[in-house]
Every structure is written in structure tokens, then in C-alpha cells.
Amino acid sequence: MAINLQKGQRIDLRKDNGSTLTEFCVGVNWGAIVKKGFFGNSKTDVDLDLSCVMLNAAKQPSDHLYSPLYKPEFLQQFGLPPGKLVSNTGALRHTGDDLAGDSGGDDGLDNEIITVNLSQISPDIDQIFFFLNNVGQEDFSMIPYAKIRMFEGSPQKVNSVFAEYNVAAEPQFAGKRALILGKLYKKDSEWKFAAIGDPTEDGFLGQTIQRILASYA
Prior knowledge:
Radius of gyration: 17 Å
Strand content: over 45%
Number of domains: 1
CATH architecture: Sandwich
Shape: globular
Distance between the termini: 30 Å
Number of strands: 14
Mean pLDDT: 90
Order of helices and strands: EEEEEEEHEEEEEEEH
């Protein structure tokens, strides 16, 4: 049975049979905005970007995954390298951009996924933060839902869900255009996961990474 995470909760990556979860997917699912009108419904695509930044023991960026579509000149303003979809060791791989979100309700599939193989992660990496940024103008009070889950399987098939964390649209999310979802972190040589779920007003990925380094690392 999947673990339903709450904000701030920390979990070991141990399965019911006692073995440790080492190869899994981190998937995020979200909905497009649908408004009902007199002449029918209108839909607004929601382009969220799932990203992650990997920190070393000195709490400095060591590697990253984020969209290659981000303009280099904007990234350079924050001292960030170009985007990529595969980590340096191949331990983490991103499925690429979803530019719209689900329409017509939750289809049960994840819009963007990062696959993780803990055994291939560089030994200098101690923390991996997962976060969402909205490329459009909508804020998280308008987006119907955003969910993160960890599951065994592949981007094409879910075999078993290990843990999931739902972030419902809330009034206090007004003006918030980014969401720090959670982090994998290493403690006593074992990997664990912490649900964060903090919305921020960041309008660009570089601001979110700066915030993570200043307040969460």
C-alpha cells in the first residue's frame, strides 16, 4: 500500500518486504485549467516544469536536471548552466516537457517523470531537491491539482506506487508560481525522502534554486 505523505513527513525508502527502494520514478501530474461558461467550457493549458538540483556535502550544486528550453542568457544571470535531461552519471533521467497538463480531469498518468537509480548517483551528492515552476502566468491557486509520487516501473507503466503526495489548489497559493515538492537526502549512508510542498512566488527557475540553497539545503 502506498504511503500518503503529509507536508514535512520524512520516510525511509524501505518496502513492505524489507528491501530498499533503489530504482524508481518520481512523477508529477497536474491539471489544465477548465472554466465553465454559458457557451461551453474553455481550457487553459498549464506548462509546469519538473526539475531537480543535486547538492554535495558542502550544500552546493553538483548536478541538475531541468528543461533545455530555458534560455541560456536567463540561466547565466543566476550562474546556472544550460538545461539537460540526463544527469552526469546517468542516475537520473527526465522524460521531457509537458506543455499543457491534463484536460478533462485526472487521467491517472504523470505529465513529467524523473527516473532515479540511487546506486548510480555520484557519491559526492547528499541531497536532491525536486520542484515545479510555472512557465505561464497562472498561479497554484488556479491549477486544479498537482501531485508527486514515487513508484516502481517505468515512465510508460506503473508497477507499484511507493509514496504519493497531493497538493490541492488552496487559496493561500494565490500569487505562487513555483512549488518545492520534496527532497531525497542521504543520512548515515542511506537515502530517505522528505515531503516539502512549499509554494513560492518565484517567476523563474533560477530564483527557486537560489531559494533552495538559502533556506532548504
